[in-house]
Automatic annotation (TrEMBL):
Belongs to the 'GDSL' lipolytic enzyme family. Transmembrane segments: none annotated. SUPFAM superfamilies: SGNH hydrolase (SSF52266). Residues 1-24 form the signal peptide. InterPro entries: GDSL (IPR001087), SGNH_hydro_sf (IPR036514), SGNH_plant_lipase-like (IPR035669). It comes from the Eukaryota. This is GDSL esterase/lipase. GO terms for molecular function: hydrolase activity, acting on ester bonds. It comes from Musa troglodytarum.
Amino acid sequence: MGGNPLRLPALLILLLCSPAVAHSKCVLFNFGDSNSDTGGLMAGLGLYLGPPSGRQFFHRPTGRFCDGRLYIDFVCERLKMSYLTPYLESSPGSNFTHGVNFAVAGAATESTAIPFPLSTQVLQFLHFKNRTRELRPQGSGSLLSEKEFQNAVYSIDIGQNDVSTPFSANLSYAEVVVKIPSILSRIRAAIEASQSLLLHQNGGRQFWIYNTGPLGCLPQKLALLKKDDSELDPLGCLADLNSAAKAFNAGLSELCDLLRSEFKNATIVYTDVYAIKQDLIANHTKYGFENPLMACCGYGGPPYNYKFRMTCGEPMVTACAEGSRYISWDGVHNTEAANSIIASKILSAKYSRPQIKLKGLCKG
């Protein structure tokens, strides 16, 4: 049959070319510590976190303190994003098209031995945004638009080191909790304003704030700090450390309420990671886990498989055969199996206030 070559109808061409139906891209800027560090510390300090880290999924060390993926990796997967590249990673292959990960292992809200506290991470964000503006006209850099910065989700997962480290320095519960207002004020400064630390005024309108988990259930803390069983709660965790985590979380929740009233045009979601992780421990058999307070990769065997200076990655230290049966990877950080469940619960919004799904905050 003769005739004109096949052509797409004009209306279909118009629809395909229309910005209104362009692919919606989620952009995420993450600030935090080792719970969400995808390789920042290793890149920033030029260190190497060797095997058996990364043995699951990646099948190689990636700088993550885990046998595989972190909860933030699963979040990115399920939001159809690329994994977040650490800000400090300058090697070829870095990808900032879906945002940046500023989280660094060991980070806290105040300056510690690790030179990347929350305030520095926020300054790094400001530098990244300014450089993006400079490079965008040249067609280089991340090419993130001003609208993408404004519509991005800014997640903050920090506080664990602020609360737990003083206990390791033999401070009492009372001495630790008096520090909480200062911790919260530094988190507020990162969101609200403290001279040039202006996440909110520099485009951030959507904040996803994670509280801290049951720190008294970490095998590391149990192995190093427990003196006798009278210090334990019904789950077998250090009661004072968990109480301090709860006190921090209560203050963080109140701070989120305050910021919502202050910034009417902002969305601030508070996510209860404590409840998520406590549920994993309390109901570990339901999720297929065993020995919920014991590290997969460590030394010493039961009950915690953790020994100072003989930690995961050191010579003579071995990992369990099946990390999928454990919640704790190295005594401090979760296994990939646990992270997958944690991510699912985060994305469900059942543990968030208000109950807004992270996916719903993603805008093109």
